[in-house]
Structure formats: C-alpha cells, structure tokens
Design brief:
It is built from one helix and nine strands; from the N terminus they run ββαβββββββ. The strands form two sheets. Strands 1, 3, 4, 7, 8 and 9 form a six-stranded mixed β-sheet that branches. Strands 2-6-5 form a three-stranded antiparallel β-sheet, with no helix packed on it. The longest helix is centred in the N-terminal third of the chain and has 9 residues. The model has no long low-confidence stretch (mean pLDDT 87).
Length: 117
C-alpha cells in the first residue's frame, strides 16, 4: 500500500481497514478485544532502516453502519504530529495491535509505504 503526504503536513490521517479473514471463530474474540487493545504505530526509513516514529499511539474507530445487517468494519489510524513529516523520503510503516491474544503487526500481506513529498 502506498500513502502520500506533504512534508510538514499533519493531514491526511493514515488509516487502514482491519480485515478479518472469516476462516476461524477467533474473529469474534478479536472483535471483543479490539476495544481494550493497545495500538501503536512505527515508521522507519526504507533506505537505512533508521526509525522516524517508534511505537507512537494509534487509534481504532468503527465505521458508521448505514445498513444494520452489514458486518462491523474497524479502522486503525494514526494522527501525524508536526515532527513526523519534517523529512522527505520513503518510509515503511506498521501498526502493532496488542490484546489478550498477543501481538499482531499490520499490514500482514504487503508493506505499507509512506512517501513524504
């Protein structure tokens, strides 16, 4: 996933949908534990691996349902601070979700690239 933000900007907010695979009953437990989970965001320079952001607070929100029969959708997001985007470059970001089931690092299947331009 590619995300673009201007240098020294705090908008747009970085947001990712929490996708459940639907293969196990663990999703029901995961839903209950999301409310009490600790969510952090980290970002490191792609070229040299030096961290720019290390385990800053990230947050969870639930999508407003237009249809009461549709499944609940969750998003994790990070609100940029003024120092987060002061350096141009390409960075690799990840969210850490810690709950009673353990730690999950998101995204799982592909890298999250943050491009500060």
């Amino acid at each position: 996933m590619e995300f673009f933000i201007r240098q020294n900007s705090e908008l747009p907010i970085l947001k990712m949908q929490v996708v459940k695979d639907g293969r196990t009953n663990a999703n029901k437990v995961f839903d209950r534990d999301l409310d009490t989970a600790t969510i952090r965001f980290s970002m490191k320079n792609e070229l040299n691996g030096i961290p720019k952001i290390l385990m800053n607070n990230a947050y969870l929100t639930e999508k407003t349902q237009m249809n009461p029969d549709s499944p609940i959708e969750y998003y994790i997001y990070y609100k940029w601070g003024s120092r987060d985007t002061n350096t141009k470059g390409r960075f690799v970001g990840e969210f850490h979700i810690v709950n009673s089931m353990g730690e999950l690092i998101v995204p799982i299947q592909e890298n999250l690239y943050i491009n500060i331009v």
